């Protein structure tokens, strides 16, 4: 096929990939001077007219879409019984290749990717289109980090019987079947959301939840077995994301999310939850049945623990108060008795004075006598409120010498320090010389759930369009938003103080 020209304008360059239904080539559109991708239908399927009609219908259906998270279809043609479809060229990896290379992705990155896919699915569902084959290999990643859904309607080319027996594409698809798809029931939009839940499970664990040697065994697991706990493969999985996975993978369609918008809202709530909700899984994991029982028992034991600690705290307090009381009483009683013997008041009887004077005083008694007199004198002075003599002032009490004539506050405390003015932090995504590029950047960020806008500024090179992703009073919040922008495919994002 290399070098072959289709439709008089598309030159086949080289193959990009091959599946059971078609081969995709890189081609040059000489009329518009751009590279495109051309999907050429497998000629073995030409024997069945319904297969050709479905291929044409797929191109017509995808051609109705105009969304940043869906691969655009530009043209369709038939040349010498060679049916082909001309599409937007995306040379980035598939999501499946990304999982193979990196393994489990961080929670924030996985949520950001899923929100983009939800946007694409919501657009398709509004056009009453069910994809039926959502899987990582049908999701492409562009150079700027935009994820796009491709291969709409491919699964419609396969009958229910061949879905379980054909190899290659079938084995890849059966891992993402919804229970109703596995048993051949009528599908609705929630079937795509179930498949998207499988993709999310694989994004955060690196593996699909149901696997077996045979396709039929995998389909039965979708129908009968509960979803394995994703924390068994990724202990850092946050509780919020764990809950989303379980709801998306409910067996009954009515128990799942009812629309792609609803699933996106749940993902967005988890993404913009407090940082600890996604970064400290030990405190936010989904509780198991045993953990719940322990929590209830702990709650019941709290009143008993309170009274136990109150009683243990009261006993030492009573002992301390008793010790202080008896020691104070014991110190005052000897003092009064000693004072009565050694320092009698002036109106004491003469006989008592003679008795006092005839009793010899030992050095220790004399020392105690003077100490008691001094103590009584100090107590008397305190009771008479005699003003204290002027004493030398400490440096903290002296008036400030920095500004003569300045008055100190009445309480002697230094004046309160002035609070610094609040700082505003702005997240700068990138700068563009072309307004259209700035607008594309803003639209791309908004499609990923990140609010953004741009403004004009003048410089040496002329007018520059600066794209920002919000202003914050908290530097930590600004850094978190910048990290989200970088994860969304804009590595130049940074935080600057607003002048």
UniProtKB/TrEMBL annotation:
GO MF, any single term: kinase activity
Keyword Ribosomal protein: no
Annotated signal peptide: none
Residues that, per the record, bind ATP: 39
Biased composition (Polar residues): 354-366
Transmembrane segments: 309-328
SMART domains xrefs: S_TKc
Domain of life: Bacteria
Every SPOR domain range: 419-498
Start-end of Basic and acidic residues biased regions: 367-404
Keywords recorded for this protein, A-Z: ATP-binding, Kinase, Membrane, Nucleotide-binding, Transferase, Transmembrane, Transmembrane helix
InterPro entries, A to Z: Kinase-like_dom_sf, Prot_kinase_dom, Protein_kinase_ATP_BS, Ser/Thr_kinase_AS, SPOR-like_dom, SPOR-like_sf
Location of region: Disordered: 336-425, 480-499
One Pfam family in the UniProt entry: SPOR
Domain Protein kinase: from-to ranges: 10-272
Name of the protein in question: Protein kinase
Organism: Laceyella putida
């Amino acid at each position: 096929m290399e070098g072959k020209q289709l439709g008089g304008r598309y030159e086949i360059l080289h193959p990009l990939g091959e599946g059971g239904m078609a081969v995709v080539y890189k081609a040059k559109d000489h009329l518009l001077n751009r590279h495109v991708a051309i999907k050429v239908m497998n000629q073995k399927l030409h024997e069945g007219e319904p297969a050709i009609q479905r291929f044409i219908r797929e191109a017509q259906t995808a051609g109705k879409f105009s969304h940043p998270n869906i691969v655009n279809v530009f043209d369709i043609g038939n040349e010498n019984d060679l049916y082909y479809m001309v599409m937007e060229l995306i040379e980035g990896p598939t999501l499946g290749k990304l999982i193979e290379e990196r393994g489990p992705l961080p929670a924030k990155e996985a949520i950001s990717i899923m929100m983009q896919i939800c946007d694409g699915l919501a657009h398709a569902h509004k056009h009453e289109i069910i994809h039926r084959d959502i899987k990582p290999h049908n999701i492409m990643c562009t150079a700027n980090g935009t994820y796009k859904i491709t291969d709409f309607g491919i699964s419609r080319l396969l009958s229910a019987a061949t879905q379980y027996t054909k190899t290659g594409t079938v084995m890849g698809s059966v891992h993402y079947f919804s229970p109703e798809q596995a048993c051949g029931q009528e599908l609705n939009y929630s079937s795509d959301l179930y498949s998207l839940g499988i993709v999310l499970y694989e994004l955060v664990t690196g593996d699909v939840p149901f696997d077996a040697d045979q396709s039929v065994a995998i389909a039965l697991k979708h129908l009968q077995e509960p979803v394995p706990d994703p924390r068994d493969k990724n202990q850092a999985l946050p509780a919020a994301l764990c809950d989303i996975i379980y709801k998306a993978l409910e067996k009954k369609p009515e128990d799942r999310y009812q629309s792609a918008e609803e699933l996106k809202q749940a993902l967005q709530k988890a993404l913009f939850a407090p940082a600890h909700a996604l970064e400290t899984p030990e405190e936010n994991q989904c509780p198991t049945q045993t953990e719940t029982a322990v929590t209830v028992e702990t709650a019941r034991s709290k009143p008993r623990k309170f009274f136990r600690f109150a009683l243990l705290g009261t006993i030492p307090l009573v002992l301390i108060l008793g010790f202080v009381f008896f020691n104070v009483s014991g110190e005052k009683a000897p003092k009064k008795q000693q004072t009565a013997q050694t320092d009698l008041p002036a109106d004491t009887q003469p006989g008592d004075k003679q008795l006092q004077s005839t009793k010899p005083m030992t050095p220790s008694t004399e020392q105690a006598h003077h100490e008691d007199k001094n103590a009584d004198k100090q107590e008397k002075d305190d009771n008479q409120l005699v003003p204290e003599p002027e004493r030398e002032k400490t440096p903290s009490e002296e008036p400030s010498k920095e500004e003569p004539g300045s008055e100190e506050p009445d309480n002697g405390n230094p004046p309160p320090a002035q609070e610094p003015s609040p700082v505003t932090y702005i997240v700068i995504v990138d700068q563009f010389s072309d307004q259209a590029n700035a607008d594309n950047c803003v639209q791309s960020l908004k499609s990923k759930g990140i609010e953004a806008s741009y403004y004009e500024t003048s410089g040496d090179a002329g007018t520059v369009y600066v794209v920002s992703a919000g202003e914050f009073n908290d530097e930590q919040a600004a850094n978190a938003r910048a990290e989200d922008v970088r994860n969304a495919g804009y590595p130049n994002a940074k935080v600057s103080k607003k002048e």
